[in-house]
Amino acid sequence: MKKIFLAIMLLGLIFQASAQVDTIQVYSQAMDKYLKAAVVKPDGYSEAERIFPSVYLLHGGSGSFSDWHDKVTQENLLIDLANQYQVLIITPGVGPASYYFDSPMLDSVQYETYIIKELIPHIDQNYRTIDKREARAITGLSMGGHGAMMLSAKNPALFIAAGSMSGVMNIDTDLWKTGPALREARKASQKMMLGNIQYKSPFSEYTAVGLVNQMHENGIALLIDCGVDDFLIDTNRQIHQLLLENGTAHEYTERPGAHTWEYWTNALPFHMLFIDKAFKKHGYN
Questions:
Q1: Is 264 left (phi over 0), alpha (psi -120 to 50) or beta?
Q2: Number of neighbouring beta carbons within 10 Å of residue 199
Q3: Of 118, 179, 187, 229, most Cβ neighbours within 10 A?
Q4: Does the pLDDT of residue 57 top 80, yes or no?
Protein backbone atom coordinates (compact mmCIF):
# COMPACT_ATOMS: atom_id res chain seq x y z
CA MET A 1 0.00 0.00 0.00
CA LYS A 2 2.82 2.35 0.91
CA LYS A 3 4.56 1.61 -2.42
CA ILE A 4 1.34 2.35 -4.33
CA PHE A 5 0.95 5.65 -2.48
CA LEU A 6 4.54 6.64 -3.26
CA ALA A 7 4.05 5.73 -6.92
CA ILE A 8 0.93 7.89 -7.11
CA MET A 9 2.81 10.76 -5.45
CA LEU A 10 5.67 10.39 -7.93
CA LEU A 11 3.31 10.37 -10.91
CA GLY A 12 1.66 13.48 -9.51
CA LEU A 13 5.00 15.29 -9.26
CA ILE A 14 5.96 14.27 -12.80
CA PHE A 15 2.62 15.50 -14.14
CA GLN A 16 2.92 18.73 -12.19
CA ALA A 17 6.36 19.39 -13.68
CA SER A 18 5.45 18.41 -17.23
CA ALA A 19 2.24 20.44 -17.09
CA GLN A 20 4.44 23.53 -16.81
CA VAL A 21 6.36 22.73 -20.01
CA ASP A 22 4.77 22.73 -23.46
CA THR A 23 6.60 21.19 -26.39
CA ILE A 24 5.40 22.93 -29.54
CA GLN A 25 6.10 22.91 -33.27
CA VAL A 26 6.23 26.22 -35.10
CA TYR A 27 6.04 26.41 -38.87
CA SER A 28 8.67 28.53 -40.58
CA GLN A 29 7.40 29.90 -43.85
CA ALA A 30 10.88 31.26 -44.55
CA MET A 31 12.36 27.74 -44.50
CA ASP A 32 9.22 25.70 -45.22
CA LYS A 33 9.65 23.43 -42.23
CA TYR A 34 8.49 22.93 -38.66
CA LEU A 35 10.83 23.54 -35.76
CA LYS A 36 10.37 22.43 -32.17
CA ALA A 37 10.51 24.65 -29.11
CA ALA A 38 9.63 24.29 -25.46
CA VAL A 39 7.76 26.84 -23.36
CA VAL A 40 8.16 26.79 -19.59
CA LYS A 41 5.24 28.42 -17.78
CA PRO A 42 5.42 29.69 -14.20
CA ASP A 43 3.32 27.95 -11.57
CA GLY A 44 -0.23 29.22 -11.53
CA TYR A 45 -0.05 30.29 -15.18
CA SER A 46 -3.25 28.43 -16.11
CA GLU A 47 -5.27 30.05 -13.32
CA ALA A 48 -3.74 33.52 -13.45
CA GLU A 49 -5.28 36.33 -15.45
CA ARG A 50 -2.07 38.36 -15.65
CA ILE A 51 0.42 38.53 -18.51
CA PHE A 52 4.07 37.62 -18.18
CA PRO A 53 7.53 38.71 -19.38
CA SER A 54 9.35 36.29 -21.68
CA VAL A 55 12.93 35.03 -21.81
CA TYR A 56 14.33 33.29 -24.90
CA LEU A 57 17.05 30.79 -23.98
CA LEU A 58 19.16 29.54 -26.89
CA HIS A 59 21.08 26.27 -27.29
CA GLY A 60 24.59 25.61 -28.62
CA GLY A 61 26.06 24.54 -31.95
CA SER A 62 25.19 20.87 -32.06
CA GLY A 63 22.30 21.11 -29.62
CA SER A 64 18.54 20.91 -29.47
CA PHE A 65 15.57 22.81 -28.05
CA SER A 66 15.51 20.24 -25.23
CA ASP A 67 19.13 20.67 -24.11
CA TRP A 68 18.35 23.23 -21.42
CA HIS A 69 15.78 20.80 -20.01
CA ASP A 70 17.72 17.54 -20.29
CA LYS A 71 21.39 18.41 -19.82
CA VAL A 72 21.56 20.88 -16.94
CA THR A 73 23.03 19.40 -13.78
CA GLN A 74 20.25 20.74 -11.53
CA GLU A 75 16.90 19.01 -11.89
CA ASN A 76 13.95 21.20 -12.90
CA LEU A 77 16.20 24.27 -13.15
CA LEU A 78 14.11 26.04 -15.78
CA ILE A 79 10.85 25.35 -13.96
CA ASP A 80 12.33 26.66 -10.72
CA LEU A 81 13.55 29.84 -12.44
CA ALA A 82 10.24 30.39 -14.24
CA ASN A 83 8.49 30.08 -10.87
CA GLN A 84 10.96 32.31 -9.05
CA TYR A 85 10.81 35.15 -11.56
CA GLN A 86 7.26 34.59 -12.88
CA VAL A 87 8.32 34.54 -16.51
CA LEU A 88 7.84 32.37 -19.55
CA ILE A 89 11.09 30.71 -20.68
CA ILE A 90 11.19 29.69 -24.34
CA THR A 91 13.86 27.31 -25.66
CA PRO A 92 13.84 27.28 -29.49
CA GLY A 93 15.52 24.69 -31.65
CA VAL A 94 17.60 25.61 -34.71
CA GLY A 95 19.94 23.84 -37.11
CA PRO A 96 23.44 22.73 -36.13
CA ALA A 97 26.25 25.31 -36.44
CA SER A 98 23.79 27.84 -37.89
CA TYR A 99 24.61 30.68 -35.46
CA TYR A 100 21.02 32.03 -35.59
CA PHE A 101 21.68 34.19 -38.67
CA ASP A 102 20.01 34.34 -42.09
CA SER A 103 22.30 32.77 -44.65
CA PRO A 104 22.67 34.73 -47.90
CA MET A 105 23.49 31.42 -49.59
CA LEU A 106 21.03 28.83 -48.23
CA ASP A 107 17.24 29.13 -48.02
CA SER A 108 17.35 26.35 -45.41
CA VAL A 109 19.30 28.56 -42.95
CA GLN A 110 17.07 31.56 -42.16
CA TYR A 111 17.08 31.45 -38.39
CA GLU A 112 17.07 35.18 -37.66
CA THR A 113 13.84 35.47 -39.66
CA TYR A 114 12.48 32.42 -37.87
CA ILE A 115 13.19 33.67 -34.33
CA ILE A 116 12.27 37.32 -34.93
CA LYS A 117 9.38 37.16 -37.38
CA GLU A 118 7.91 33.72 -36.81
CA LEU A 119 8.64 32.29 -33.36
CA ILE A 120 8.29 35.43 -31.23
CA PRO A 121 4.96 36.42 -32.86
CA HIS A 122 3.74 32.83 -32.44
CA ILE A 123 4.56 32.88 -28.71
CA ASP A 124 2.96 36.30 -28.22
CA GLN A 125 -0.20 35.18 -30.03
CA ASN A 126 -0.57 31.87 -28.19
CA TYR A 127 0.68 32.67 -24.67
CA ARG A 128 -0.10 35.45 -22.24
CA THR A 129 3.07 37.46 -22.75
CA ILE A 130 3.78 41.14 -22.31
CA ASP A 131 4.37 42.01 -25.95
CA LYS A 132 6.79 44.84 -25.25
CA ARG A 133 10.54 45.30 -25.55
CA GLU A 134 10.76 46.13 -21.85
CA ALA A 135 9.48 42.67 -20.92
CA ARG A 136 11.41 40.48 -23.35
CA ALA A 137 15.02 39.21 -23.03
CA ILE A 138 17.31 36.73 -24.74
CA THR A 139 20.38 34.75 -23.67
CA GLY A 140 22.11 31.50 -24.53
CA LEU A 141 25.18 29.31 -24.42
CA SER A 142 28.00 28.97 -26.96
CA MET A 143 26.40 29.39 -30.41
CA GLY A 144 23.30 30.52 -28.52
CA GLY A 145 25.32 33.28 -26.86
CA HIS A 146 26.27 34.45 -30.34
CA GLY A 147 22.62 34.28 -31.35
CA ALA A 148 21.44 36.28 -28.35
CA MET A 149 23.99 39.05 -28.85
CA MET A 150 23.48 39.18 -32.62
CA LEU A 151 19.69 39.03 -32.64
CA SER A 152 19.33 41.67 -29.92
CA ALA A 153 21.86 43.99 -31.59
CA LYS A 154 20.02 43.79 -34.92
CA ASN A 155 16.51 43.89 -33.43
CA PRO A 156 16.66 46.34 -30.50
CA ALA A 157 12.94 47.07 -30.65
CA LEU A 158 12.28 43.56 -29.33
CA PHE A 159 14.67 43.11 -26.36
CA ILE A 160 15.59 44.99 -23.18
CA ALA A 161 18.37 42.60 -22.09
CA ALA A 162 20.69 40.09 -23.72
CA GLY A 163 23.28 37.68 -22.41
CA SER A 164 25.94 35.21 -23.46
CA MET A 165 27.33 32.22 -21.59
CA SER A 166 30.58 30.88 -23.08
CA GLY A 167 29.48 32.51 -26.31
CA VAL A 168 30.99 32.37 -29.78
CA MET A 169 31.60 36.11 -29.83
CA ASN A 170 33.63 35.78 -33.01
CA ILE A 171 32.96 33.02 -35.54
CA ASP A 172 36.58 33.24 -36.72
CA THR A 173 37.79 29.81 -35.68
CA ASP A 174 41.42 30.95 -35.71
CA LEU A 175 40.66 32.49 -32.31
CA TRP A 176 39.27 29.27 -30.87
CA LYS A 177 41.49 27.19 -28.61
CA THR A 178 40.47 23.93 -30.19
CA GLY A 179 41.80 21.19 -32.42
CA PRO A 180 42.10 21.44 -36.22
CA ALA A 181 39.18 19.09 -36.90
CA LEU A 182 36.53 21.33 -35.28
CA ARG A 183 38.20 24.48 -36.57
CA GLU A 184 38.18 23.33 -40.18
CA ALA A 185 34.70 21.79 -39.99
CA ARG A 186 33.25 25.07 -38.73
CA LYS A 187 35.12 27.06 -41.39
CA ALA A 188 33.74 24.81 -44.11
CA SER A 189 30.15 25.10 -42.86
CA GLN A 190 30.48 28.88 -42.54
CA LYS A 191 31.70 29.15 -46.12
CA MET A 192 28.73 27.09 -47.25
CA MET A 193 26.32 29.39 -45.39
CA LEU A 194 28.03 32.76 -45.83
CA GLY A 195 30.40 32.51 -48.76
CA ASN A 196 33.66 34.44 -48.38
CA ILE A 197 33.25 36.92 -45.53
CA GLN A 198 35.62 39.34 -43.84
CA TYR A 199 36.95 37.70 -40.67
CA LYS A 200 39.34 40.47 -39.63
CA SER A 201 38.50 44.05 -38.67
CA PRO A 202 36.26 45.56 -39.94
CA PHE A 203 34.28 42.50 -38.94
CA SER A 204 31.32 41.03 -40.81
CA GLU A 205 27.77 41.67 -39.57
CA TYR A 206 27.41 37.89 -39.33
CA THR A 207 29.61 37.74 -36.24
CA ALA A 208 28.85 39.29 -32.86
CA VAL A 209 32.04 41.37 -32.74
CA GLY A 210 30.92 43.03 -35.96
CA LEU A 211 27.86 44.48 -34.21
CA VAL A 212 29.47 46.35 -31.31
CA ASN A 213 28.46 49.74 -32.73
CA GLN A 214 24.82 48.67 -32.78
CA MET A 215 25.21 47.38 -29.21
CA HIS A 216 26.50 50.82 -28.21
CA GLU A 217 23.52 52.59 -29.77
CA ASN A 218 20.74 50.25 -28.64
CA GLY A 219 20.78 50.70 -24.87
CA ILE A 220 20.18 46.99 -24.25
CA ALA A 221 21.40 45.62 -20.92
CA LEU A 222 24.25 43.22 -21.75
CA LEU A 223 25.76 40.40 -19.69
CA ILE A 224 28.71 38.34 -20.97
CA ASP A 225 30.43 35.60 -19.01
CA CYS A 226 32.90 32.85 -19.86
CA GLY A 227 34.98 30.27 -18.04
CA VAL A 228 38.71 30.89 -17.98
CA ASP A 229 39.34 27.37 -19.29
CA ASP A 230 36.80 27.69 -22.12
CA PHE A 231 38.10 27.28 -25.67
CA LEU A 232 36.17 30.44 -26.63
CA ILE A 233 37.67 32.67 -23.94
CA ASP A 234 39.69 34.76 -26.42
CA THR A 235 36.57 35.68 -28.41
CA ASN A 236 34.89 36.82 -25.19
CA ARG A 237 37.88 38.92 -24.19
CA GLN A 238 37.89 40.42 -27.67
CA ILE A 239 34.27 41.61 -27.57
CA HIS A 240 34.72 42.85 -24.01
CA GLN A 241 37.65 45.01 -25.16
CA LEU A 242 35.73 46.31 -28.18
CA LEU A 243 32.77 47.26 -25.98
CA LEU A 244 35.09 49.03 -23.54
CA GLU A 245 36.70 50.93 -26.41
CA ASN A 246 33.41 52.22 -27.79
CA GLY A 247 31.94 52.95 -24.37
CA THR A 248 29.13 50.37 -24.38
CA ALA A 249 27.79 49.65 -20.89
CA HIS A 250 27.94 45.93 -20.18
CA GLU A 251 28.73 43.43 -17.45
CA TYR A 252 31.58 41.03 -18.13
CA THR A 253 32.71 38.16 -15.93
CA GLU A 254 35.34 35.45 -16.15
CA ARG A 255 34.96 32.59 -13.70
CA PRO A 256 36.57 29.20 -13.16
CA GLY A 257 35.13 26.69 -15.60
CA ALA A 258 35.14 25.32 -19.12
CA HIS A 259 32.66 24.64 -21.93
CA THR A 260 30.47 22.37 -19.79
CA TRP A 261 26.93 21.94 -18.57
CA GLU A 262 28.16 22.38 -15.02
CA TYR A 263 29.30 25.88 -15.94
CA TRP A 264 26.06 26.79 -17.76
CA THR A 265 23.90 25.38 -14.98
CA ASN A 266 25.68 27.70 -12.56
CA ALA A 267 25.61 30.65 -14.97
CA LEU A 268 21.92 30.64 -15.86
CA PRO A 269 20.61 31.81 -12.45
CA PHE A 270 22.93 34.84 -12.68
CA HIS A 271 21.54 35.63 -16.14
CA MET A 272 17.98 35.33 -14.88
CA LEU A 273 18.73 37.68 -11.97
CA PHE A 274 20.31 40.16 -14.40
CA ILE A 275 17.28 39.94 -16.71
CA ASP A 276 14.86 40.32 -13.81
CA LYS A 277 16.62 43.54 -12.75
CA ALA A 278 16.25 44.88 -16.30
CA PHE A 279 12.54 44.02 -16.29
CA LYS A 280 12.00 45.66 -12.90
CA LYS A 281 13.91 48.78 -13.95
CA HIS A 282 11.25 49.29 -16.58
CA GLY A 283 8.30 48.47 -14.36
CA TYR A 284 7.77 44.80 -15.17
CA ASN A 285 7.84 41.92 -12.70
A1: alpha
A2: 18
A3: 118
A4: yes
